[in-house]
Design goal:
- It is built from twelve helices and 14 strands.
- The protein is α+β, with helices and mostly antiparallel strands.
- The strands form three sheets. A six-stranded mixed sheet has the order 8-14-13-11-9-10, sandwiched between helices.
- Strand 13 and strand 14 form a beta hairpin.
- Helix 9 packs across helix 10.
């Protein structure tokens, strides 16, 4: 490493992790049940008429602009944000001299390397950007991001800023109104507040009443050369509009309806109709307008018990989910990560076939939802995949261009592809 690089990485600030970042970090450990992987997002885009030099220059301006792209995790488990980092040269594989078949082999090799990679948490960068040149005009872009530095909303902020700087190198972006380090300090201070202690007491009173995750059909070994796989589909704008209108008539939010549907499907396959799922939510402190264009991981989690014993109809289920969320969300500053830790500390052991299931809805987000997907400006999406340790099924919901897009990313070590496809229908 050059002296310049050492100097760049010597100046930094450190902050305590959020609960969700800590869970991501611990989940990397191979000795943790259902762990041994990073929380990670991989995206691949086929691009035409790309200017690779301009892509690289604009990306480095993004790294300078957003401090969490300069972050790592210290050996002590703190978020370490470097004041400066070296210029990032985007690796480019020149495949123009190869046959189409040979190109596909090389692309598959690159994809396999990055799709489920576990980037060292203590080494910068916690992301990878890479390109491959196929012809004089066509490229493949590979985007690999660990989730510790940035959540889904922040990735949308990153790609929007990147698009503006790529298209107009002279663009003068408005500086972020705050830094993620400010949020981490605010979150740390909030944990000493009376409001936080009330939320802690609220959840601890319920610890022993929370049922396990769904008891889904067994899957002893992975059934795929890829540990994590995806099933996905879309709902056309007119049908999605009908669903929203139905929600209005029922007095339930679209997220409540989709959560209820997820719960009903899981109940049909679970050995016990009482179970909990975990919702990924936006941290209350992170909703401060100061953080609207700040990159970081502002997510938290909420444990949502569900009871399908009486096989309620979907309307009744959606209403119940809505009522539960109205009760639980005001106490979500005590995160689901801590709730599950409290359950373990109380000596509760979930059954072996309990498969953690997560739901992430971005409906209503003015940053994530939009007329186009976050990387559409680069070209056509080839693949999008995510993975999370200690999660069997991750249900993700997006609203793009008026249509509903949703998918399940699942761990083939925990649930079989056959079962998932049958459930997803």
């Amino acid at each position: 490493m050059s002296e310049k690089t050492r100097t760049n990485l010597d100046s930094f600030r450190e902050f305590p992790m959020t609960d969700i970042q800590s869970a991501y970090w611990v989940g990397r450990r191979a000795d943790i049940a259902m762990g041994g992987v990073s929380t990670h997002v991989y995206e691949e885009v086929h691009s035409t008429d790309l200017d690779p030099d301009r892509l690289e220059e604009s990306w480095n301006r993004i790294v300078q602009r957003h401090e969490m792209l300069r972050s790592v995790v210290s050996p002590e488990g703190l978020i370490r944000i470097h004041d400066e980092t070296p210029y990032y040269r985007i690796p480019q594989d020149d495949l123009r001299g190869l046959t189409r078949y040979e190109q596909e082999i090389r692309l598959r090799t690159i994809r396999t390397r990055h799709r489920e990679e576990v980037l060292p948490s203590d080494a910068w960068p916690l992301w990878r950007v890479r390109t491959a040149r196929l012809t004089g005009k066509t490229f493949r872009i590979f985007l690999s991001f660990d989730a510790i530095p940035c959540d889904a909303r922040s990735r949308s902020v990153i790609y929007e800023d990147w698009k503006r700087l790529y298209r107009d190198p002279d663009a003068d972006l408005e500086p972020p109104a705050a830094r993620f380090g400010d949020f981490l300090e605010d979150a740390s201070a909030h944990r000493e507040s009376e409001e936080y202690r009330r939320s802690q007491a609220f959840w601890r009173e319920r610890t022993l009443d929370i049922p396990p995750p769904p008891l889904l059909p067994p899957q002893s070994t992975g059934d795929s050369d890829q540990r994590f796989r995806r099933v996905e589909t879309t709902m056309a704008p007119d049908r999605w509009r009908d669903c929203r209108e139905r929600c209005e008539r029922w007095g339930a939010s679209p997220t409540a309806l989709l959560t209820a549907i997820f719960g009903k499907v899981l109940a049909d396959w679970s050995r016990d109709p009482r179970f909990h799922i975990v919702l990924t939510i936006f941290d209350r402190l992170g909703r401060d307008p100061r953080y609207s264009n700040v990159v970081g991981d502002f997510t938290s989690s909420l444990v949502l018990p569900m009871d399908c014993t009486k096989d309620p109809g979907i309307e009744a289920m959606a209403r119940q989910v809505g009522a539960d969320l109205r009760e639980l969300l005001p106490r979500s500053d005590y995160s689901g990560v801590r709730v599950l830790r409290d359950i373990a500390k109380a000596g509760v052991r979930f059954p072996r076939r309990a498969i953690p299931c997560v739901l992430t809805s971005t409906i209503g987000s003015d940053v994530i939802s939009g007329k186009e997907w976050r990387t559409d400006w680069m070209g056509d999406r080839v693949e999008l995949r995510s993975q999370t340790p200690q999660v069997g099924i991750d249900f993700q919901i997006f609203e793009v261009g008026g249509e509903l897009r949703y998918n399940w990313d699942y761990d083939t070590n925990l649930v079989s592809t056959t079962s998932v496809r049958d459930m997803f229908r």
